[in-house]
Amino acid sequence: MTVVATPPAPKLELPPLKLGPLTVDTPVILAPMAGITNSAFRRLCREYGGGLYVAEMVTSRALVERTPESLRIISHDDDEKVRSVQLYGVDPVTVGQAVRMLVEEDRADHIDLNFGCPVPKVTRRGGGSALPWKIDLFTSIVRTAVKEASKGNVPLTIKMRKGIDEDHLTYLDAGRIARDSGVAAVALHGRTAAQFYSGQADWSAIARLREALPDIPVLGNGDIWSAEDAIRMVRETGVDGVVVGRGCQGRPWLFGDLMAAFEGREERHKPDLRMVAASVYRHAELMVETFGDEGKALREIRKHMAWYFKGYVVGSELRTKLAMVTSLEVLRGTLDQLDLNSPYPGVDAEGPRGRAGSPKKPALPKDWLLDRNMDAEQSREISHAELDVSGG
């Protein structure tokens, strides 16, 4: 991997992140991303730098039912220092059962609750970023989860968005409720559900949450595409750490850059095409180990190709072939057709990646916004929604 020095920058004086009994020396968290942050990708990221690496989101009902896919999602490599799991759920009882299972069976060292997902199939059922609007439901879920996690001294955190839209913001209320319920930290993505991933993240909201919650760690998420972005976020908002999602897609070495930046070192990864190809092949090999099925693993790696090769001179024909690989042998042969001596393309390989979507009216349960508390009909619908999202 090509590593170059950047102009000297003062060291960012940010202490290790404390989450209950856990100490995260490099205050960087890999955001859980469905279909992305499996054990293969987490290993790649860990090999470059320190941090806390969260597994893909798993639904509480599926975990309680012990579906094979949910158990795969929460599986960790033997050498993962901190086994971090993110749960999604809309029913306090089911979420509590899932947390209890993780704790009693020693399957996690850190648990995060998802209150930030903006995907319509989640929000229309009252989950994800729609849920904190209902103060009674949110409070019940968080308190129940913290109570169960505390029995095993497992720190529990939450990740959320600003709110449903600019007229229905929830992050300050939710942050205070979470703090008073005993969470170990709160992470805020500086966008609303209505924004999806479009526009710019509102770092000023992250700063306001940091000011409102001086007594627990607050983590910032949104638009961290480089180590310099992370440094700027910390300086502008005062957060205790950063959460990185789409910025590391196709760039697992970003965690090496982040660790260097937080330690005051100048090195940054600027990989040539040979190094990118090597990372892609290693990623594919690790995916085969993860799934135990070469065909499935290669189907899964396809989505990463555009991210890895963003900005590089590859050619449409080879890009098409890379997006259709069927085996490690085919992948090796296709990668060997690249001009592996091509240098790092600079800014063309950096910046936003992945689908941003466009602002849209969030899908919500009927009459969801009429009151901050649940009515009887909404409570019944939530109960059914928990059953419907079963499946891992």
In summary, what is this structure?
It contains 16 helices and 14 strands. It is an alpha/beta fold. The strands form four sheets. Strands 4-5-6-7-8-11-12-13 form an eight-stranded parallel barrel, surrounded by seven helices. A two-stranded antiparallel ribbon has the order 1-14. Strands 2-3 form a two-stranded antiparallel ribbon.
Describe the structure.
This protein is of the alpha/beta class. It is built from 16 helices and 14 strands. The longest helix has 19 residues. The chain is globular, with a radius of gyration of 21 Å. The two termini are 36 Å apart.
Q: Any descriptors?
A:
alpha/beta; two-stranded antiparallel ribbon; 8-stranded parallel beta barrel; 392 residues
Low-confidence stretches: none
| Large-scale geometry | globular
Strand count: 14
Major sheet: size, sense and barrel closure?
8 strands, parallel, barrel
Helix content class: 25-40%
Tell me the number of helical segments per DSSP (H or I, 4 or more residues long): 16
Order of helices and strands: EEEEHEHHEHEHHEEEHEHEHEHEHHHHHH
Order of strands across the main sheet: 4-5-6-7-8-11-12-13
Q: What structural class do helix, strand and pairing data support?
A: alpha/beta
Question: N-to-C terminal Cα separation, in Å?
Answer: 36 Å
Percentage of β-strand residues: 5-15%
Radius of gyration: 21 Å
The average pLDDT value, as a whole number, equals 93
